[in-house]
């Protein structure tokens, strides 16, 4: 009888303690927020291809950091604007476009992340580069803004010019190209 009494007492204690435990938080559906984060990336790519630097800069927090491949880190709106102004002008002059690939996103409170792939095509539609990206966003006043943003190229750097290629062949060329 004693073992049965101990078992009932133990079960009663477990049930009483489990009743005191806080309820699990309700499941949060983040699909809508994840879609909003991905929409910001689509806006970024469309604005880049159109050369609309101000539209892109508006997608970043004031203290955001952009870390592009083969370039210095851009800290804050002014540096991001300067980098993108030169970069989008170069892309437009070369006739290249960024094309989005697959991506995934996640949200936790007022912080979100997205990672994905992209390709770069020339005017003929030929892929000339590809890469991946990772962005961290912060929700401010109902809008997702990039806080940290980095992307890379899957292609290796072109080889550095040889010493003979660096030296001007004619004296006049040295004056034109310091």
Any overview of this molecule?
The chain is built from 6 helices and 6 strands. It has 178 residues and is of the alpha+beta class. The protein has a domain at 31-153: Nuclear Transport Factor 2, Chain: A, CATH 3.10.450.50. The protein has a 6-stranded mixed beta sheet, covered by helices on one side. Strand 5 (127-140) and strand 6 form a beta hairpin. The longest helix is centred in the first third of the chain and has 20 residues, at 31-50. The radius of gyration is 27 Å and the shape is elongated.
- Please tally the β strands and state the result: 6
Largest sheet: 6 strands, mixed
Task: Determine the fraction of residues in helical runs and give it as a percent range.
Answer: 40-55%
The number of helices is 6
Q: Which of globular, elongated, flat, extended, rod-shaped describes the shape?
A: elongated
Cα distance, first to last residue?
A: 100 Å
CATH topology of the domain at 31-153: Nuclear Transport Factor 2, Chain: A
């Amino acid at each position: 009888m004693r073992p049965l009494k101990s078992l009932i007492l133990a079960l009663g204690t477990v049930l009483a303690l489990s009743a005191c435990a806080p309820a699990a938080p309700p499941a949060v559906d983040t699909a809508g927020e994840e879609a909003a984060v991905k929409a910001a990336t689509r806006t970024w790519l469309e604005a880049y291809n159109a050369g609309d630097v101000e539209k892109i800069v508006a997608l970043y927090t004031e203290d955001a950091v952009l870390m592009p491949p083969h370039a210095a880190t851009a800290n804050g709106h002014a540096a991001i604007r300067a980098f993108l102004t030169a970069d989008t002008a170069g892309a437009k002059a070369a006739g290249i476009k960024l094309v989005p690939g697959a991506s995934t996103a996640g949200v936790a409170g007022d912080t979100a992340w997205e990672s994905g792939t992209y390709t770069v095509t020339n005017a003929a539609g030929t892929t000339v580069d590809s890469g991946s990206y990772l962005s961290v966003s912060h929700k401010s006043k109902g809008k997702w803004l990039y806080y940290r943003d980095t992307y890379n190229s899957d292609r290796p750097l072109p080889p550095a010019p040889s010493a003979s290629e660096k030296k001007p062949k004619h004296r006049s060329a040295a004056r034109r190209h310091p």
